[in-house]
Amino acid sequence: MLNISTKFYTPHPISVVAYQKMAETGILSFDARVELIEGEIIDMAPIGSKHASYVNRLNRTLVRVIGDAALVSVQNPIILGDLSEPEPDFALLKAKDNDYEDLLPSAEDILLLIEISDTTVNYDMKIKAPLYARFHIPEFWLINIQKMSVTIYQKPMQGLYTVVNTHRLPTKVTPLLLPNSQLELR
Fold it and tell me: Rounded CA gap, 109 and 93, in Å?
């Protein structure tokens, strides 16, 4: 029986620098819905109306509650090492005078990442959560639209989150590194 995990090819990982040059030169179109994960260009799922409404509502809540304690970045890229440039739905970033005009945020700038999942729950749990843990992102929230829940991943250690809790929506949550900012998720 053939082992289907055997690769018959050698992949050539794409670096963040090469990926950005591909976008700058037009190899990747400006409106391409892709992200770079571990050296591979991955198609992102289309954004449906339900997902968009969750992003809009959560954006209003985050901006109101977080205020100037952090920068709320919506669906913008972050850099994780030399081979990954994911685009989480939200990144709460350490405040910076120029709002990261000079360089995209990297792991040490991130206080919290949030993904809103409708059709991508498995991808976000099995690919993105471990990626975020490997880069020591202190906290990651996965909002599951289908199950009306939020899974909170905290305290990364050796590439895994050591604290994982799931709550049904609606619920009140407080970001680990923003203890004065309680959010009501609905």
Answer: 6
